[in-house]
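Suppose a colleague, Dr. K., hands you the sequence of a protein chain of 102 amino acids and asks what its three-dimensional shape might be. Before reaching for any lab equipment, you can write down a predicted structure in token form. Begin with the sequence itself:
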Amino acid sequence: MLQLRPTCEHCDKSLPPAALDARICSYECTFCADCVESVLSNVCPNCGGGFTPRPVRPSKNWKNDNYLGNDPARTEIKHRPVDAAAHAAFSADIKAIPPEAR
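The predicted structure, expressed as tokens, is then:
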């Protein structure tokens, strides 16, 4: 089950469960869309993968208790600002490769 982390790991922007600008990689590293585009060049600084919009968990119990009230978002913040220069060096060779081909 997705952790639904509460903030962008880089800029610490709040990303509540219904945030449409939350982005995740396949390891659930969580960043805001602005950081993914302007700082990270769609390259996860932790794994090198790409990002996708984070799904929004239903806020109402539509079926079988699969909703935010039963499976709440995480509250622990994981704030790990990215060193822009180090990330630029890391991502230089792979940012042109589509995420599905990395």
